[in-house]
Protein backbone atom coordinates (compact mmCIF):
# COMPACT_ATOMS: atom_id res chain seq x y z
CA UNK A 1 0.00 0.00 0.00
CA UNK A 2 2.76 2.45 0.90
CA UNK A 3 4.59 1.65 -2.33
CA UNK A 4 1.44 2.18 -4.41
CA UNK A 5 0.79 5.50 -2.69
CA UNK A 6 4.37 6.62 -3.41
CA UNK A 7 3.91 5.76 -7.12
CA UNK A 8 0.67 7.77 -7.27
CA UNK A 9 2.31 10.79 -5.68
CA UNK A 10 5.21 10.63 -8.08
CA UNK A 11 2.81 10.36 -11.06
CA UNK A 12 1.32 13.63 -9.90
CA UNK A 13 4.76 15.21 -9.67
CA UNK A 14 4.73 15.14 -5.88
CA UNK A 15 6.98 13.70 -3.20
CA UNK A 16 5.90 12.53 0.28
CA UNK A 17 6.80 14.89 3.14
CA UNK A 18 9.66 12.72 4.32
CA UNK A 19 11.21 12.75 0.83
CA UNK A 20 11.09 16.49 0.13
CA UNK A 21 14.46 18.13 -0.65
CA UNK A 22 14.42 20.20 2.53
CA UNK A 23 13.83 17.16 4.75
CA UNK A 24 16.48 15.11 2.96
CA UNK A 25 18.92 18.00 3.14
CA UNK A 26 18.30 18.40 6.86
CA UNK A 27 18.73 14.69 7.43
CA UNK A 28 21.94 14.55 5.40
CA UNK A 29 23.23 17.58 7.29
CA UNK A 30 22.52 15.92 10.63
CA UNK A 31 24.33 12.72 9.61
CA UNK A 32 27.31 14.67 8.25
CA UNK A 33 27.48 16.79 11.42
CA UNK A 34 27.36 13.70 13.62
CA UNK A 35 30.18 12.10 11.65
CA UNK A 36 32.28 15.26 11.89
CA UNK A 37 31.86 15.38 15.68
CA UNK A 38 32.62 11.66 15.96
CA UNK A 39 35.85 12.15 13.98
CA UNK A 40 36.82 15.13 16.12
CA UNK A 41 36.17 13.20 19.33
CA UNK A 42 38.18 10.24 18.04
CA UNK A 43 41.12 12.41 16.99
CA UNK A 44 40.94 14.36 20.26
CA UNK A 45 40.90 11.13 22.25
CA UNK A 46 43.90 9.79 20.35
CA UNK A 47 45.82 13.03 20.89
CA UNK A 48 45.02 13.01 24.61
CA UNK A 49 46.13 9.40 24.85
CA UNK A 50 49.41 10.19 23.11
CA UNK A 51 49.99 13.15 25.43
CA UNK A 52 49.38 11.00 28.53
CA UNK A 53 51.68 8.23 27.26
CA UNK A 54 54.36 10.70 26.21
CA UNK A 55 54.19 12.60 29.48
CA UNK A 56 54.44 9.37 31.48
CA UNK A 57 57.43 8.24 29.44
CA UNK A 58 59.19 11.54 30.14
CA UNK A 59 58.54 11.14 33.88
CA UNK A 60 59.89 7.57 33.80
CA UNK A 61 63.04 8.91 32.12
CA UNK A 62 63.37 11.85 34.52
CA UNK A 63 63.04 9.78 37.71
CA UNK A 64 65.41 7.17 36.28
CA UNK A 65 68.13 9.85 36.33
CA UNK A 66 67.60 10.73 40.01
CA UNK A 67 70.07 9.51 42.65
CA UNK A 68 68.74 10.48 46.07
CA UNK A 69 71.14 9.42 48.78
CA UNK A 70 69.38 11.21 51.63
CA UNK A 71 69.50 9.35 54.97
CA UNK A 72 66.67 6.88 55.50
CA UNK A 73 65.55 4.12 57.82
CA UNK A 74 66.25 1.39 55.27
CA UNK A 75 67.61 0.59 51.83
CA UNK A 76 65.17 -1.63 49.94
CA UNK A 77 66.45 -3.89 47.17
CA UNK A 78 63.75 -5.06 44.77
CA UNK A 79 64.20 -8.74 43.96
CA UNK A 80 65.01 -10.30 40.59
CA UNK A 81 65.87 -13.76 39.34
CA UNK A 82 68.20 -16.00 41.33
CA UNK A 83 69.56 -19.42 40.49
CA UNK A 84 69.85 -21.81 43.43
CA UNK A 85 70.91 -19.00 45.74
CA UNK A 86 73.05 -17.12 43.23
CA UNK A 87 71.65 -13.74 42.14
CA UNK A 88 71.26 -13.13 38.41
CA UNK A 89 73.27 -10.31 36.85
CA UNK A 90 70.20 -8.04 37.14
CA UNK A 91 69.79 -8.82 40.84
CA UNK A 92 73.52 -8.63 41.55
CA UNK A 93 73.70 -5.11 40.10
CA UNK A 94 70.93 -4.02 42.47
CA UNK A 95 72.58 -5.68 45.47
CA UNK A 96 75.94 -4.05 44.67
CA UNK A 97 74.21 -0.65 44.59
CA UNK A 98 72.56 -1.35 47.95
CA UNK A 99 75.94 -2.37 49.38
CA UNK A 100 77.46 0.90 48.17
CA UNK A 101 74.66 2.91 49.79
CA UNK A 102 75.05 0.97 53.05
CA UNK A 103 78.82 1.53 53.08
CA UNK A 104 78.24 5.28 52.69
CA UNK A 105 75.88 5.36 55.65
CA UNK A 106 72.64 6.11 53.80
CA UNK A 107 70.74 3.71 56.08
CA UNK A 108 71.57 1.25 58.88
CA UNK A 109 69.41 -1.52 57.41
CA UNK A 110 69.13 -3.26 54.04
CA UNK A 111 65.87 -4.97 53.13
CA UNK A 112 65.92 -7.70 50.50
CA UNK A 113 62.54 -8.77 49.18
CA UNK A 114 61.06 -11.41 46.92
CA UNK A 115 59.57 -14.89 47.04
CA UNK A 116 60.46 -17.92 44.94
CA UNK A 117 59.19 -19.85 41.96
CA UNK A 118 57.90 -23.41 42.19
CA UNK A 119 60.87 -25.75 42.56
CA UNK A 120 63.32 -23.09 43.78
CA UNK A 121 65.41 -23.81 46.87
CA UNK A 122 65.87 -20.15 47.76
CA UNK A 123 63.73 -17.06 47.76
CA UNK A 124 64.98 -13.91 46.07
CA UNK A 125 65.17 -12.26 49.49
CA UNK A 126 67.24 -15.09 50.97
CA UNK A 127 69.67 -15.23 48.06
CA UNK A 128 70.08 -11.45 48.28
CA UNK A 129 70.80 -11.66 52.00
CA UNK A 130 73.41 -14.39 51.46
CA UNK A 131 75.12 -12.31 48.79
CA UNK A 132 75.29 -9.23 51.00
CA UNK A 133 76.56 -11.24 53.97
CA UNK A 134 79.31 -12.64 51.74
CA UNK A 135 80.27 -9.05 50.94
CA UNK A 136 80.61 -8.28 54.64
CA UNK A 137 77.27 -6.78 55.65
CA UNK A 138 76.38 -7.99 59.19
CA UNK A 139 73.43 -10.40 59.23
CA UNK A 140 71.60 -8.28 61.81
CA UNK A 141 71.68 -5.34 59.39
CA UNK A 142 69.78 -7.26 56.69
CA UNK A 143 66.05 -7.95 56.78
CA UNK A 144 64.87 -10.58 54.29
CA UNK A 145 61.18 -10.24 53.42
CA UNK A 146 60.62 -13.57 51.70
CA UNK A 147 57.39 -12.87 49.89
CA UNK A 148 56.19 -11.19 46.75
CA UNK A 149 56.04 -12.43 43.17
CA UNK A 150 55.70 -9.00 41.57
CA UNK A 151 56.62 -5.40 42.34
CA UNK A 152 53.36 -4.48 44.06
CA UNK A 153 53.31 -7.52 46.34
CA UNK A 154 56.95 -6.97 47.25
CA UNK A 155 56.48 -3.28 48.04
CA UNK A 156 53.40 -3.93 50.15
CA UNK A 157 55.20 -6.70 52.06
CA UNK A 158 58.16 -4.41 52.75
CA UNK A 159 55.86 -1.61 53.88
CA UNK A 160 54.09 -3.93 56.33
CA UNK A 161 57.38 -5.24 57.72
CA UNK A 162 58.97 -1.82 58.15
CA UNK A 163 55.94 -0.01 59.55
CA UNK A 164 55.64 -2.79 62.14
CA UNK A 165 59.18 -1.85 63.22
CA UNK A 166 58.38 1.89 63.31
CA UNK A 167 60.42 2.54 60.18
CA UNK A 168 58.90 4.49 57.31
CA UNK A 169 61.60 6.14 55.17
CA UNK A 170 63.31 4.12 52.44
CA UNK A 171 65.71 4.42 49.55
CA UNK A 172 64.58 2.08 46.78
CA UNK A 173 67.14 0.24 44.67
CA UNK A 174 66.09 -1.24 41.36
CA UNK A 175 66.76 -0.60 37.67
CA UNK A 176 66.54 3.05 36.61
CA UNK A 177 63.39 2.66 34.53
CA UNK A 178 61.68 0.80 37.37
CA UNK A 179 62.22 3.66 39.82
CA UNK A 180 59.10 5.76 39.24
CA UNK A 181 56.71 2.83 39.51
CA UNK A 182 58.33 1.42 42.65
CA UNK A 183 58.40 4.88 44.24
CA UNK A 184 54.74 5.45 43.39
CA UNK A 185 53.77 2.09 44.87
CA UNK A 186 55.86 2.61 48.00
CA UNK A 187 54.31 6.00 48.68
CA UNK A 188 50.84 4.56 48.11
CA UNK A 189 51.75 1.86 50.68
CA UNK A 190 52.53 4.50 53.33
CA UNK A 191 56.29 4.83 53.02
CA UNK A 192 58.36 7.96 52.51
CA UNK A 193 60.28 6.77 49.49
CA UNK A 194 62.98 8.02 47.15
CA UNK A 195 65.23 6.24 44.70
CA UNK A 196 68.90 5.47 44.00
CA UNK A 197 68.85 2.99 41.09
CA UNK A 198 71.71 0.86 39.86
CA UNK A 199 73.77 2.21 36.96
CA UNK A 200 75.12 -1.18 35.90
CA UNK A 201 73.62 -4.44 34.69
CA UNK A 202 71.59 -5.56 31.64
CA UNK A 203 68.95 -2.87 32.12
CA UNK A 204 71.43 -0.14 31.19
CA UNK A 205 73.91 -1.93 28.93
CA UNK A 206 72.60 -0.73 25.56
CA UNK A 207 70.39 1.95 24.04
CA UNK A 208 68.02 -0.81 23.04
CA UNK A 209 67.64 -2.08 26.61
CA UNK A 210 67.14 1.46 27.86
CA UNK A 211 64.44 2.21 25.28
CA UNK A 212 62.77 -1.10 26.04
CA UNK A 213 62.84 -0.36 29.75
CA UNK A 214 61.24 3.06 29.33
CA UNK A 215 58.57 1.66 27.00
CA UNK A 216 57.76 -1.23 29.34
CA UNK A 217 57.65 0.87 32.50
CA UNK A 218 55.53 3.60 30.89
CA UNK A 219 52.69 1.20 30.21
CA UNK A 220 53.22 -0.73 33.47
CA UNK A 221 52.90 2.52 35.44
CA UNK A 222 49.79 3.61 33.52
CA UNK A 223 48.27 0.18 34.16
CA UNK A 224 49.01 0.47 37.88
CA UNK A 225 47.55 3.97 38.08
CA UNK A 226 44.37 2.83 36.33
CA UNK A 227 43.87 -0.49 38.12
CA UNK A 228 46.23 -0.58 41.14
CA UNK A 229 47.45 -3.95 39.90
CA UNK A 230 51.02 -4.78 38.96
CA UNK A 231 52.24 -5.51 35.44
CA UNK A 232 55.76 -6.87 35.60
CA UNK A 233 58.27 -7.95 32.99
CA UNK A 234 60.32 -11.11 33.47
CA UNK A 235 63.98 -10.96 32.50
CA UNK A 236 65.34 -13.76 30.37
CA UNK A 237 67.52 -16.49 31.85
CA UNK A 238 70.58 -15.08 30.09
CA UNK A 239 70.35 -11.98 32.24
Mind explaining what this structure looks like?
This protein has 7 helices and 7 strands; from the N terminus they run ααβββαβαβαβαβα. The protein has helices at 2-11, 21-64, 89-103, 124-134, 151-163, 179-188, 207-227; strands at 74-77, 82-83, 86-87, 110-113, 142-145, 169-173, 192-195. The protein has a 5-stranded parallel beta sheet with strand order 5-4-1-6-7, sandwiched between helices. Strand 6 (169-173), helix 6 and strand 7 form a beta-alpha-beta unit. The radius of gyration is 29 Å and the shape is elongated. Mean pLDDT is 85; it is low at 234-239.
Quick structural gist:
With 239 residues, the protein is an alpha/beta fold.
Please, how many helices? Answer: 7
Largest sheet report: 5 strands, parallel
From N to C, what is the helix and strand string?
A: HHEEEHEHEHEHEH
Shape: elongated
Approximate strand percentage: 5-15%
Number of strands: 7
Task: Provide the residue-averaged pLDDT.
Answer: 85
Low-confidence stretches: 234-239
What integer value in Å does the Rg equal? 29 Å
- Assembly classification: single chain
User: Distance between termini?
Assistant: 78 Å
Strand order of the largest sheet: 5-4-1-6-7
Task: Identify the notable features of this structure and list them briefly.
about 240 residues; elongated; 7 strands; alpha/beta; 5-stranded parallel β-sheet
Helices, strands, pairings?
Elements: H1 2-11, H2 21-64, E1 74-77, E2 82-83, E3 86-87, H3 89-103, E4 110-113, H4 124-134, E5 142-145, H5 151-163, E6 169-173, H6 179-188, E7 192-195, H7 207-227
Amino acid sequence: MAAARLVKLRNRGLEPAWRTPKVEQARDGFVAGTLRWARRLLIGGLLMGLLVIGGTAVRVWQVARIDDWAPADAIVVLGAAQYDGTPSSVFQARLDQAYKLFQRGVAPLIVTVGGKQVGDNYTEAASGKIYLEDRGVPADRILAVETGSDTLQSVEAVSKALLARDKSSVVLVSDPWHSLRTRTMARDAGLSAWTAPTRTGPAVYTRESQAHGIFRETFALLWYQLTHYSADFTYTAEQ
